[in-house]
Specification:
The chain is of the alpha+beta class. Helices cover 34% and strands 21% of the residues. The strands form two sheets. It has a six-stranded mixed β-sheet with strand order 7-6-5-4-1-10. A four-stranded antiparallel β-sheet has the order 3-8-2-9. The N and C termini lie close together (9 Å).
Length: 236
């Protein structure tokens, strides 16, 4: 059974953490259908129009992630949160390429709400997935890479019970092992924020995710909103 949790140490240092977690089983992966592709393209146009000339660093959601990165020793102008990286690609290149049904769903919600969304194939996760500080002994294999590397001690990671890292620098990059692919049928999706109002923003983004999954991927879902007072998701 999949579980997701934050360590007390992470929540003590980052008490504004709000995490939405959605576990979806029996979903349809595969390529992106035409209707979803059209919705994703329309969302990209709407986000570009809404942003205008506003610097991404001025968006409250992204500014809060920059502060978090600095607090665990990462320069956020060199290593960007997943949401900022997506929006930066959109504003610089004019579009975000389609990858597959499940990733496109996550990316649509991410750019709409300017929050990082991770879509994790649970087949690659051993036991619980824990957000905690790295010791530096854990193993991470980046997409497109063959050899694993070790995270920097003290950075925030998603790691499973086998010491395999599924996301580095909190929401910077996912691993090859748990990336959602066309064959994925069970996924854990996270949406996280730190800004004032993050709880409501994450809840709204999770509602969007659930609706899009129901429309385009089907399956059965369980979800929870996590915080320092509710740090773990353990589905029934």
């Amino acid at each position: 059974m999949v579980r997701f949790r934050y360590t007390p140490e992470v929540l003590a240092r980052f008490s504004g953490t709000r995490g939405g977690v959605l576990w979806a089983r029996g979903v349809t992966g595969g390529p992106t259908p035409a209707e979803l592709a059209a919705a994703f393209a329309a969302e990209q146009r709407a986000v570009l129009a809404r942003l205008g000339d506003t610097p991404l660093a001025e968006l409250p959601t992204l500014a809060a992630w920059r502060q978090v990165f600095r607090r665990f020793g990462v320069n956020p102008t060199q290593v960007r949160s997943a949401a900022e990286a997506l929006l930066r690609r959109l504003t610089k290149q004019g579009e975000i390429p389609s990858l597959n049904r499940l990733v496109d769903l996550g990316n649509l919600v991410s750019i709409r709400h300017a929050l990082p969304v991770a879509v994790i194939d649970t087949r690659g996760v051993a036991g619980a997935l824990t957000v905690g500080f790295a010791t530096g002994e854990e193993r991470f294999t980046e997409l497109g890479a063959e050899a694993p590397v070790h995270p920097e001690p003290g950075e925030v990671i998603f790691a499973d019970d086998a010491g395999v890292v599924h996301a580095r620098r909190w929401c910077w990059r996912q691993s090859a092992r748990s990336a959602a692919v066309e064959a994925s049928t069970e996924v854990l999706i996270t949406v996280e924020g730190h800004h004032p109002g993050a709880e409501a923003a994450v809840a709204t983004a999770m509602a969007d995710l659930a609706a899009l999954l129901g429309k385009f991927a089907g399956g059965r879902c369980e979800a929870a909103l996590l915080s320092p007072s509710h740090p773990e998701f353990a589905p029934s």
